[in-house]
Specification:
The chain has helices at residues 24-30, 66-79, 108-119, 150-167, 181-191, 212-218, 221-224, 240-252, 266-275, 286-297, 303-317, 327-336, and strands at 40-47, 63-64, 83-89, 124-129, 142-144, 147-149, 171-174, 198-205, 256-260, 280-284, 321-324. Helix 2 (66-79) packs across helix 3, helix 3 runs parallel beside helix 4 (150-167) and helix 4 (150-167) packs parallel to helix 5. With 337 residues, it is an alpha/beta fold. Strand 3 (83-89), helix 3 and strand 4 (124-129) form a beta-alpha-beta unit. Helix content is 39%, strand content 16%. The chain binds ligand PBG. Ligand PBG is lined by residues 128, 130, 132, 140, 175, 210-211, 214-215, 229, 285-286.
Length: 337
């Protein structure tokens, strides 16, 4: 019998895509993408004791002292989070033009790593390799006549990587965008006996406006002033260049590639995934976190739903793991189901 209310006069649609969307159980059975707590990496800011904990531009995110950080990591580990990525807020009196504090074997990043690995050996610890938390000018490399010098920067980067590996870091994450750094860091690690230390390369890191709150958190914003990083980070207009960056890092020995920022660059994650058989991580940056947080505080969006939607989007695009300041929130949501 023909329905009088059929939208197509005298016919039923042959295919009804809504049939599989009727119930939760069925939607779950046909879901193409899964998001798991095990996919999440929590970035954490480490500071000296007595430094301010609040980060004004990142509501809900704090800097932790060495005394506090192990507890936070314990909480993350108990929730099932796979790894943490540590970022030091270096006291300004320890910063200099050359970023020498980066090579101090007892700096905040190394100390925090030692404490965390001792207390929680099964929690992955990742640390950036770049000079920006340590330099008075806030750049990721050494500055010579106003230009961030590529080859001269490689040497301190190699030393930072080895020093972090000695402290017990599982994965070093070069985030400076110098050319050739993956190859030299791999060699430096191998010669120092750290053949098993992984390299997560920030292969495709754009010169982005979404890093503002992070620079506040590590204290590089004031150092950087009005300067930008456009002479070494990538131009947001480019995607074929991203493939060249990735190919180069793979050839030089990277184990995993990272795309950053995340949500505005899902096309890049997808292209890398289609092109290379290497795991890809996505970084939901501080500015992206801020947009979610502030929009929800203003009542424009629902934080929990929007957060999970963004994380699923990373997975759908092809990321195998995601760094997110909201990793703990997401883990709690996923745990409840
Ligand atoms: C430093 C670094 C940055 C971020 C991670 N590592 C900032 C920058 O390049 O200036 C940004 C992270 C974020 O915004 O959440 N090399």
């Amino acid at each position: 019998m023909k329905s009088a209310i059929s939208p197509i006069v005298g016919e039923f649609p042959t295919t009804r895509l809504r049939r599989t969307r009727q119930d939760v159980w069925c939607r779950d059975l046909v879901a193409e993408t899964q998001l798991s707590i095990k996919d999440l990496i929590l970035p954490l800011f480490v500071c000296a004791e007595g430094a301010p904990r609040e980060i004004c531009s990142m509501p809900g995110v704090f800097r932790y002292s060495l005394q506090e950080i192990v507890d936070v990591c314990g909480e993350a580990f108990d929730l099932g989070i796979a790894a943490v990525a540590l970022f030091p807020n270096t006291p300004s009196e320890l910063k200099c033009e050359a970023g020498r504090e980066a090579l101090n074997p007892n700096n905040l990043a190394c100390e925090a790593t030692r404490l965390i690995k001792k207390a929680l050996p099964d929690l992955g610890v990742i640390v950036d390799v770049a000079l920006d938390p340590y330099t008075t000018h806030g750049h990721d490399g050494l500055v010579r006549e106003g230009y961030v010098a590529n080859d001269e920067t490689l040497n301190p980067l190699n030393q930072i990587a080895v020093s972090l590996a000695r402290a017990g870091v599982d994965m070093v994450a070069p985030s400076d965008m110098m050319d050739g750094r993956i190859g030299t860091i791999r060699k430096a690690l191998d010669y120092a006996g750290f053949q098993r230390t992984r390299i997560l390369s920030y292969s495709v890191k754009y010169a982005s406006a979404f890093y503002g709150p992070f620079r506040d958190a590590v204290g590089s914003k004031a150092c950087l002033g009005t300067a930008d990083k456009e002479t070494y980070q990538m131009d947001p207009a480019n995607s074929r260049e991203a493939l060249r960056e990735a190919a180069q890092d793979i050839m030089e020995g990277a184990d995993i590639l990272m795309v950053k920022p995340g949500l505005p660059y899902l096309d890049i994650i997808y292209r890398l995934k289609e092109t290379f058989a290497i795991p890809i991580f996505a970084y939901q940056t501080s500015g992206e976190y801020g947009m979610l947080k502030l929009a929800s505080e203003q009542g424009l969006i629902e934080y929990r739903k929007a957060l999970i939607e963004t994380l699923i989007a990373f997975k759908r695009a092809g990321a195998s793991a995601i760094l997110s300041y909201a990793a703990m929130d997401a883990a709690k949501i996923l745990k409840k189901g």
